[in-house]
Every structure is written in structure tokens, then in C-alpha cells.
Amino acid sequence: MTANDLIHALMLKYRGVISLIGAGGKTTLMFTLADRLARDGKKVLTTTTTKILKPLPEQSPKLILSSSVQEILSQSKTFFKSGNHLTAGHNLVSPRGKVVGFAPSVIRDLWESALFDWIIVEADGADRKPLKICADHEPAVPDIATHVIALAGLSAIGKPLNDQWVFRAKYFSEVTALPPGKPVTESAMAMALAHDLKKASEKQKAILKIVFLNQADHPEMERMGRRIAECLERPGKSGDLLPAQRVVVGSLKRSPPVHRWYAPPPASKTLCQP
């Protein structure tokens, strides 16, 4: 496999706006993708509609902080004479050094400048947990997004459904019908991912919906990933599971990061329930 397998697996062809949602590796995926695309000569902006930790120099060689779209565009044009990837945010807040992002409307303005080939947006928070479910106000996906990639960390499978492992565990339980404290199942993870993909695509029906199952660090986790892909094609109790166009299984800490991908997800012989 080559470095471009990640680009191929996530269906990134020419240019677009990618919104990353979920948990278990969003920031790592954002900067990994940016690096891959920049190496291919693409002009890439990484940013957020929430907050992200201030990127390290090896993650992003340039950070622009400004509330002015014109200032961001001006600095970006100058930087692109010598580089291909930069990060932008509204301002920096302490003590954790977090970059505050932009409203989705600002992402639209930046995209419509036609300066960037790709804009990668971290569109929700997860409090560094491997699994989450979106609250009512999430995710903050720009209406011009072309791709939404929902992430989940496979390390959460088999762990108790509580706040240690799942961001918004109580709401996760309500949506999936998995009782608090019970081990997180593959089908419950699939239900949460489907719930979040459905919310993310409400404003942009034509958006490409992709799942990235991270932390597949051994063969059993790869098998878990396949079972989750199966569940994503089958209706749950409410009949509202939303299939993704592609389910990618891999590990962002390994090279290559993509182990398997399913498109469309393989059909399951059994009905997936939590």
C-alpha cells in the first residue's frame, strides 16, 4: 500500500471541504490527511468550528490567528508561495493553548475564495474519549461540506458504557438502548455513528458519508470493524440506521493507516441490536 491509500479509501479526489466528527482520532486524522494532500501539491487549510489544541510545528508549519477572512486569505496567499498546508483559527485561549475556530459561515467564505484545494474542519468535540455521540447542538458542519468522516475508536468496544470511555455516555445510552455500565457493543457503536452521520448530513444531503474505525491494532479489532460495517447496513430497532458510502478500518498510529475498507458495507445476515 502507498501513502495515497488513505486518500483513495476516503474518496478524496479533486478538492472539497471535509468535516471530521466523532471520537478516537479526529485531530490525528486531520493532520495526517493534510500532510498527505500537501505532499500531492494540494493547498490545504486545517481549521475547526469548535476548538482544537494548538498544533505542533510538525503537525502544521503555519498557524494564522485572525477574525478577518481577508487577513487569513492574505497571509495564506503569502504562505502558499513556499508551503502547502496551514492552520487557521479565530484566536488562542489559555491555559491549554486551544485554538478557537470559526462559525460555519466563515468556512464558506474561505472556501468561496477558491484559494484552497481542501479545507479540513474538526466539527465537534470528544473530550479525548475513544467514543462519543453528538448532542443536539452538534456537529457544526458547514453547509458547503463535501465529505463528512465519522470516527470512532475500536478500543471502546467491550468497555463499560460510562463517562470514562464514552463522551456523553447518558445520551449514548438513550439513543442506542444500551444500559449504562454494560459493555459497549459493535452494534451500539454502529448506531451512534449512524445517528451522528444523519445529523451531519441534514443540511447537505449530497455529502459523502464515510466512517473511519480507528485503533484497529490487532486482527480481532479488524474483525470488530467488519462487524460494525455490517451493522451500518442493517436497520436497528427504530429502522433509522444510515449506511455510509464507505467504512474504513485502520490505525492512524501505524503505516499504512488503512487496513481494510468496505464500499458499500457488507450485508449482514442478522439484525444488529445493542
In words, what does this structure look like?
- With 274 residues, this protein is α/β, with parallel strands linked by helices.
- The protein has a nine-stranded mixed β-sheet, sandwiched between helices.
- Helix 6 crosses helix 7.
- Strand 4, helix 3 (69-79) and strand 5 form a beta-alpha-beta unit.
- The protein has one domain (5-52, 119-262): Rossmann fold.
- It is 27% helix and 23% strand.
The CATH architecture can be given as 3-Layer(aba) Sandwich
- Spans of at least 5 consecutive residues with low confidence: 235-239
Radius of gyration: 18 Å
Helix content bin: 25-40%
The N- to C-terminal Cα distance equals: 35 Å
What is the percentage of strand-forming residues?
15-25%
Helix/strand-derived category reads alpha/beta
Spatially, the strands of the biggest sheet line up as: 4-5-2-8-1-10-12-13-14
Summarize the structure.
The protein is 27% helix and 23% strand. The protein is built from seven helices and 14 strands.
